[in-house]
Amino acid sequence: MPKQSSFEVDGQFLRQVYYLTVILAVVLTALFGIIYGFPTALSFVVGSFLSLGAVLVLEFVVRLMVKPGSSTKTKRWLGLIALGKYTFIFVGFYFLMKADWLNIYSLAVGVGLVQVVVILKAIKLMVLILLGNNTSKNS
Q1: Those residues with Cβ within 8 angstroms of residue 115's Cβ, 6 or more apart along the chain or in another chain
Q2: Pairwise pLDDT comparison (47 vs 82), residue with the higher score
Q3: Spatial contact of 111 and 51, defined as CB atoms under 8 Å apart
Q4: Is 4 helix (H, G, I), strand (E, B) or coil?
Q5: Concatenated DSSP letters for 43-101?
Q6: What whole-number distance in Å separates Cα of residue 82 and Cα of residue 64?
Q7: Whole-number pLDDT of residue 64
């Protein structure tokens, strides 16, 4: 088995994103709950679940259905599942907007949490690459 560099994105990347997202969600939920109150924390949790759920469903569907040489039937199923997922999201957002307790800003931060985690992991990867290049030049 070839040795993998620490500068590569591997099959565990999404699992690491999930773990880091959950950890950040717990910490930020507690922080929002203490500073801004329960409705803000609840809005953040709902947004985080929506974001994380969308990525989990996408990964599940892609791993389940996308195989080399897949047929047009598979592509139709993928389109139907995507349409169903976004229909569910739009209906969920409709009812969320009708809720009196919703804090829209906190919900938006929660929805963006997975993207923030991916950006943080990319920054970490770039820093490791830069540090690796600097140490190899100094040697």
Answers
A1: 51
A2: 47
A3: yes
A4: coil
A5: HHHHHHHHHHHHHHHHHHHHHHH--TT--HHHHHHHHHHHHHHHHHHHHHHHHHHH-SS
A6: 14
A7: 75
